[in-house]
Records
---
Amino acid sequence: MTKLLEWLFGVSLVGAVWALVTFDLLDLSLPQTYREVAWPMPLYLLVSFGCYSLATVGYRVATFNDCDEAAKELQEQIKEAKEDLRKKGLKM
Amino acid sequence: MATGVDQAVGMSLVVFSLLLFTYYSVWVIILPFVDSHHVLHKYFLPREYSVILPGIAAVILLLCIGAFTAVIMWKSRKPKKAD
């Protein structure tokens, strides 16, 4: 089984469990508080993934070592690229 | 270690995302279990907003990306040559 199929299977399993709890498809009559926690779960996972990405980016920005020669070389390459693109017609 | 502004920006991003995560977690997960007369509820908006606000933020993000792309593509269009 390919990785894609594995992921799709896992995601649909989790999605089915969430739908069961949120929309009460099996008439399990769970306590209201558990249903209230369950239904925003997909959005909550998305928001926490976004927060994790933001924190990782911020942390790596803060701990990245300065490298002066690479910075100079990069500025040169940026200038070259801008010239090249300007010749090809892209207005910056 | 990166210096000055880089460190400040990076650390502020980390702190901001931690605060956002904590606030959102309490809002979504902990608040339903807290007694409705508890003073904690005063600090949180009604629960519907916990879905509406991220939705609006996502829409605004997509709008900004789309607008940026449109502006760049508009500026770099070449006038049609008359043949």
---
Amino acid sequence: MAFLEVEDLKVHFPIKGGIFGRTVDYVRAVDGVSLSLEKGKTYGLVGESGSGKTTTGRAIIGLNKITSGKVTFDGNDISNLKSRSEVRKDVQMIFQDPYSSLNPKKRVIDIVAEPLRNFEKLSKKEEKIRVQELLELVGLSPESILKYPHEFSGGQRQRIGIARAIALKPKLIIADEPVSALDVSVQAQVLNFMQDIQQELDLTYLFIGHDLGVIKHMCDKIGIMYKGRYVEEGTTEEIFNNPQHIYTKRLVAAIPDIDPKRRQEQTQFRQEVKTEYEQSYNDYFDDEGLAYKLQPVTDTHLVALPEKG
Amino acid sequence: MSEKLLEVKNLKTSFRIKDDYYAAVDDVSLSVNKNEVLAIVGESGCGKSALAFSIMGLHNRAKIEGNIMFKNQDIANISPAKLNKLRGNNMGMIFQDPLTALNPLMEIGDQIGEALLLHNKDLSKEKRKDKVIQLLTKVGIPRPEHVYEQFPHELSGGMRQRVVIATAIANEPELLIADEPTTALDVTIQSQILDLIKELKDDMDAGIIMITHDLGVVAEMADRVAVMYAGQIVEVSDVYTLFESPLHPYTRSLFNSVPNTAEAQSKLHVIQGIVPSLQKLPREGCRFSARIPWVEESAHEEHPELHEVSPGHFVRCTCYKHFNFPDSSKEEQQHGIS
Ligand SMILES: Nc1ncnc2c1ncn2[C@@H]1O[C@H](COP(=O)(O)OP(=O)(O)OP(=O)(O)O)[C@@H](O)[C@H]1O
Ligand SMILES: Nc1ncnc2c1ncn2[C@@H]1O[C@H](COP(=O)(O)OP(=O)(O)OP(=O)(O)O)[C@@H](O)[C@H]1O
Ligand SMILES: [Mg+2]
Ligand SMILES: [Mg+2]
């Protein structure tokens, strides 16, 4: 069994309506996602905004209630809350929104030290040294410890969140767009750093992102989500060099080109893929506009297509 | 064609920390024409958002010095009421942080509707709703009628960002400041939003300030690019020249940090040292010198100025003439967890 195994995960949110506030329908935020992650590897989760990536991550770590399905971590079923408490230390999350995930009333030292206080008994002095080390690791100056989140820029705040997430040397990190708010140099620093500690601590990453350049750089395997479901899964090479699903093709075509001289060509290419997308939409999505079940292309490459025959 | 829309002259924005003021934006001058996209790139914490907030008049506690001319009117020193009106009608801003820009207790539809009212206070409730739904559709939000009645916390990160975008473009502003408008968006939605911004520019002749750290977005969108470091502009040029021959050591380092698609999983270039906090910002000499310690001191100017190296291409300090990447910078400082 893989290190992290997610089987047919569903997370549905009720939509309330009418004067009695009854549940009239559900948002099927995650609607049958399966993935498996090997220890020490990085798995990329990409897809449309609102397709359920964050919800998947939050469900794995226990912040969203699972409607159905199963999550197994390191051999333990962690689908329900009770079994989860034992692995709390081993699974950490870096949150997408560096603003709302940091308590504005707390100083940096208290934010970063919070997990340490829950799980390790350190003296005040040891704690301060550890926090300063962690801050230095993510490229923040040691004097930052006495400041409040609002005194930092967006990118700086994200690094505070990363420092907190790695404080306990977890085994699995769910990184929800960990570098989206960062400038490229700091991004490079954080990515290098994530790779370094991955080797050192044998860390496993579930890396949620939308910058396909970053995903390509970091991930061994990639899953592409669309409206709560997978449209494609494969190795990084398969996804980038041989995308099969029309949504994946469109995603790859939308990557901005770093050469301003190719603007024209890029726009044209994108237009072509868009036309193909519109013309073949019905071959790739069902009547409700949802993805079909995954079909194997190779051992590692799966594509959501209607069943043949 | 190249009619000036915004001109910022010697802008200095300082925050009070304890008993002193520290400038986060330090003597910045720039201009934006109608029908032009000026991209601003730079290290996290270099003052991009502070600059944007200053132009929009949104800093309530900072000290602002210098001139901000919007259509030949100095808006750095006008009454809050006038500014408010200008903001609702003529200037729009897409905030970097969608959550602080949105009211957590207000339905999405009402928030965008409120922006529309600023422009036209006689707009009927029905018309307003139609317009809001139209805007939500424009920014690619699925099921806009449903989202109309939702609260910010019920939306995904990218959906929130699109609500902020819808609010900013609701009144078709003449000047749009987009602070990291697409960072929370997947690339297909991103390209849709970028098209929307291009439309605003091409069809309405709007001027755009685009703050981003995605050099791909800069390459696709910008007419001109200003590179900021530690509160100052260190290089400015048209986009083609900048991408073909970046000169300032900071700009060159930036290009080197982009994940190179060819060498997956290898080490990326990192600029040495850490981003100085506002209090520790170097204020004298070349501000970037501490990050490139191998460059001799004599290469830097004592009071670095912007030099025009070719028409419209400006670089600060003379150190670019002597700059090279050392081989050792590839094997960056070893990170470890102890
Ligand atoms: N607490 C909630 N209540 C109701 N609906 C929710 C809640 N949280 C998320 N959703 C809905 O679930 C869907 C998936 O949201 P999620 O945040 O997982 O998307 P995402 O893939 O992470 O998107 P993004 O790339 O924009 O961050 C969205 O339609 C969102 O509106
Ligand atoms: N209200 C404030 N009080 C004190 N310092 C502030 C305040 N707002 C910003 N700063 C500081 O001013 C500097 C510039 O911040 P700003 O938010 O403009 O950075 P930025 O270039 O937008 O960075 P990012 O790319 O991370 O968003 C930073 O050092 C930041 O810590
Ligand atoms: Mg998300
Ligand atoms: Mg900013």
